[in-house]
Amino acid sequence: MVTPVRVVIALCLVAPFVAMLWVGSYAKTDPTWIGIPFFYWYQMAWVLISTALTMVAYRLWQRDQRARASRKGGAAE
């Protein structure tokens, strides 16, 4: 069953893949940050962003599962 929460979960999990597979958006050297070319710091930033998005997706999934279990009288799916 597709719910708004599950759509948000899917977007949180798909966003890093889209960002990394769209190489043309970050295949450049400028702007540099503390001497590091954009290509490298963009990818490293996505490591942190991916971690945060995965944690958000996991928390939302847990909350969704608890809500579904309480609606079904305690039976988990």
Automatic annotation (TrEMBL):
The keyword Membrane applies. The chain crosses the membrane at residues 7-27, 39-61. Keywords: Membrane, Transmembrane, Transmembrane helix. The keyword Amino-acid biosynthesis does not apply. It comes from the Bacteria. This is DUF3311 domain-containing protein. It comes from Streptomyces colonosanans.
